Amino acid sequence: MIHVTELVEITDEVVAAFDHLIPQLSASNPPPSPDALKQMAADPNIVLFIARDTDSDAIVGTLTLAFFRIPTGLQARIEDVVVDEVVRGRGVGELLTNAAIDRAQGEGAKAVGLTSRPAREAANRLYLRMGFEVRETNVYRLKL
Questions:
Q1: Which residue stretches of 54-142 are H helix?
Q2: Is the pTM of this model over 0.90?
């Protein structure tokens, strides 16, 4: 069984889980340092979720929910969703995403946005099935 919770404390186990999971998301970005994780956990505009396999007690997924206020209202954005490759296909991503949606609704966000690379076919199917809509927009990024 998988249980999703919000992270409130950054432990050695949590740091090790991010060290294991983040490379499965991006080979070009290093996992966050313990200090970076602590800063995120302390930030009132960021919620870190973890998924734990209750049979093995292992952390098998993570999702970051970020809130930001703009003139049109409070927005929420899902970032860095990672499900351990050994448990993919068991609904972990959906559980994490539902937890984030529930939290965003509870905070009064007008919408929840996310991006997903086209190559992540299973994730894209999940988001569409959950009611997310593909937006007709261009996404730009300037590396600093």
A1: 92-107, 121-129
A2: yes
